[in-house]
Design goal:
With about 220 residues, this protein is α+β, with helices and mostly antiparallel strands. It has 8 helices and 11 strands. It folds into 2 domains: about 130 residues, Roll (CBS-domain), CATH 3.10.580; about 80 residues, ACT domain (Alpha-Beta Plaits), CATH 3.30.70.
Length: about 220
């Protein structure tokens, strides 16, 4: 799955000469915490509601509302924006976008095309939504966690047990616990028949069942 299919297209943006007051109104109207700055189709920076609060007068100020508005109208976005923006290409995978956000501790990324124009924005919420949909959780899943040895043939043996009992594995992932042990997380459709039989066979084969739960 790629960023282009999960991003918000045509994101709301402002130009660098937008006043702080205009930007503040736009952010509050759309309930944004950060916005990108685009001049002539090119990404030039970003700013957050914290940046606006940093330059706005304190609530304890003696300035009148007129004076506050006048002050904010003299400050433009270019005065508070961050010019170094972390981005992701529209052709990148969702995994790549998630890793960029994680490594840089950011909650969203502007999405750019190969020619450098802004074509969208993808957020941590979009990533989470994708994860939930890919896992098929809304439709209901049974999640099973096994502790297994790190050796050749384990996967084949376990999948054969499920197949022999007519149960289709929806998805599974491995989580390394040590050089010799893994946690194997298996997801099945909620209506899978023969589940109890499979659990018994797994235990008889020496596989340790750590956890089972129904999700969704």
């Amino acid at each position: 799955m790629f960023v282009a299919s999960r991003m918000t297209k045509h994101p709301v943006s402002v130009t660098s000469d937008t006043t702080i007051q205009q930007a503040d109104r736009l952010m509050k109207k759309n309930k944004f915490h950060r916005m990108i700055v685009v001049d002539d189709g090119k990404l030039v920076g970003y700013f957050s509601d914290r940046d606006i609060m940093r330059v706005a007068p304190s609530p304890a100020t003696t300035l009148s509302k007129f004076e506050i508005r006048s002050l904010l109208d003299k400050i433009s976005v270019r005065d508070i924006m961050h010019s170094k923006v972390i981005t992701v290409n529209e052709d990148a995978t969702i995994e790549e976008a998630a890793l960029i956000m994680y490594n840089n501790k950011v909650g969203g990324l502007p999405v750019i095309s190969d020619v450098g124009t802004v074509v969208g924005i993808i957020t941590a919420t979009d990533i989470l939504k994708t994860f939930i949909e890919v896992m098929g959780l809304p439709g209901g899943k049974t999640r099973l966690t096994l502790e297994v040895d790190n050796k050749v043939g384990v996967m084949a043996d376990i999948t054969k047990i499920f197949a022999d009992n007519g149960i289709n594995i929806d998805s599974f992932i491995t989580c390394r616990q040590s050089d010799s042990r893994y946690d194997l997380v298996i997801r099945l459709d909620d209506n899978a028949k023969g589940f109890d039989t499979v659990m018994k066979i797994l235990e008889e084969r020496g596989y340790k069942i750590i956890h089972t739960v129904k999700i969704g």
